[in-house]
Design goal:
Blueprint lengths: L1 H12 L8 H6 L4 H17 L1 H11 L3 H14 L14 H12 L5 H5 L42
């Protein structure tokens, strides 16, 4: 029973969002848990001071895969219009995904408009920036009979 309680406590401590400050990360010994902590607090650090945050991540995060994830997260959540952090990604596929995100403004337009908080579009809503392609007038709202486009005959 004690073992189960201990597993539960460790699982709760390492759950996403459990880490909230750089001090928590610094208090951990090197390893996966510390790397995950830095990944959780990185977006806030980069929002405040990108140069200092970059130095911290390069020094404190030992796993290159976690660093790559941090660079992608920072690009997506903090600086979606810049390739700056994508260039630091070592893994080729993840780097390509990051560059795709930056090269397609519609993927981060909502994020920029909301000042850092992306709003998910409602299901069935038109795309941002317009109503989308026109497919003709709604039923019953076409031109009056006999007044269609030139050269077209109406019954």
């Amino acid at each position: 029973m004690q073992r189960l309680a201990m597993v539960f406590l460790v699982a709760c401590r390492t759950a996403p969002g459990a880490f909230q400050s750089p001090d928590e990360c610094r208090a951990l010994s090197a390893g996966a848990q510390r790397d995950e902590c830095w990944a959780a607090v990185a977006p806030k650090l980069f929002s405040d001071d990108p140069a200092a945050a970059e130095a911290i991540i390069m020094e404190q995060v030992g796993d290159s895969k976690v660093r790559d994830f941090i660079w992608l997260t920072v690009t997506r959540d903090v600086d979606p219009g810049s390739y700056r952090w994508c260039e630091k990604i070592e893994e080729r596929t993840l780097g390509a995904r990051c560059r795709t995100l930056v090269s397609r403004p519609h993927l981060h337009r909502a994020l920029q408009q909301q000042g850092g908080v992306a709003e998910q579009p409602k299901k069935g809503a038109p795309p941002p920036g317009g109503a989308g392609p026109r497919r003709g007038p709604p039923p019953g709202e076409g031109p009056p009979p006999g007044e269609g486009p030139p050269g077209e005959t109406q019954p």
